[in-house]
Amino acid sequence: MRSFYNEAMHYSLRIFTLLLLLLVLAVFLATRFVPGLQISSFAVIFNSISGAGSPETSHRIADSLVITPGLQLTVFADNLTRPRILKTAPHGQLLVSSPPTGSIILLADTNSDGQADNNRVILSNLKRPHGIEIFDDGNTSWLYVAETNAVGRVAMDWTSGEPVGDYQRLITDLPPGGGHWTRSIRFGPDGLLYLTVGSSCNVCEESDPRRAAMMRYQPDGSGEEIIATGLRNSVGFDWTPWSNQLYATDNGRDMLGDHFPPCELNLIQAGGFYGWPYINGFGKLDPDLGQGKESLLTSSLSPSYGFPAHNAPLGIHFMRHSNRPETFQRTALVALHGSWNRSEPDGYKVVALRWDQQGTISIKDVLTGFLRQNQQVIGRPVDIEEGLDGSIYISDDYAGSIYRMLYID
């Protein structure tokens, strides 16, 4: 029986590998015949399809990264399966979602050496979990998880780092899957739960109004309200600590060449429409779906900042810790996941956006080197989180790592 099982597994693996190769070949052939289809890196495409990580080790990657002066970089955790969203727990542990494994992982540095030495799954059997958040209602500390088709929560004992009771799904009818399957959640200053759902496609007219939109709910999942639309794929969002304004990253559409449209940072206003699928970037009608939609130009909200096309901004985090230096005041760090639909790869770095007193936004590289000079991709940053001690954590779903940045004198 064991021999039969091993043969079946070996046969299944061969079939899976063959299907992957055929799929990669199909993508390669498509680049020759589909207008606007450019591939930045076939390794990135293969990673996205198969989950296979970077061929480099995490520490070798970290050694080759370039960090802005005043910061130091180390590897906090490695050998993780596609780590995505990060959240610091009340006792300093770091939570990370792993969508392919259906799990939420708790990482702890119990000996204070700057590396996670306690790595354990605290929730499993979830459907592509992505967004994670913590909310204390005064009686219970809840861990919230956004799965691809639902949002659930479980009570937590953060002293032990263990769930208390069963995981319960509160929102159960989210539109599943599609081209953008991730779901992101955060609690706002108003105590409400905010949720983003990406579009099901590159460019199309959606039948479900909750796609390409941001919603908000009561903590128990009731009172669904759509507050912003036309957001093609807003994976990251956060509030400014100085004014409680809500900003969200957004990925522009593909198949329109290397340099258009820009990816976006949007200031979210209740009831706002942000253009997709009819308008791209700063008031440009879409060549596929924009015809006859000129009237929307007057009501559509343009970005507060435009990133280069296909850079894929994901996680955004406004710096809040009291020990941050002057250069990180009124600043958000943004993870640029990097391009796939581009003839030459671009993005693949962490940048700092800084707001001056007049609200003008400037940009500066903070962590680069994920894209080598020979155009080899060795990492793809996803999310950013601050620790209780001011450490800055960055997830990399290509290398399977979490990096730790520290301020140094």
TrEMBL record:
Domain Pyrroloquinoline quinone-dependent pyranose dehydrogenase beta-propeller: residue ranges: 66-256, 301-403
TM region positions: none
A Pfam family it matches: TrAA12
Signal peptide region: none
Name of the protein in its database record: PQQ-dependent sugar dehydrogenase
Organism encoding this protein: Porticoccus litoralis
Species classification: Bacteria, Pseudomonadati, Pseudomonadota, Gammaproteobacteria, Cellvibrionales
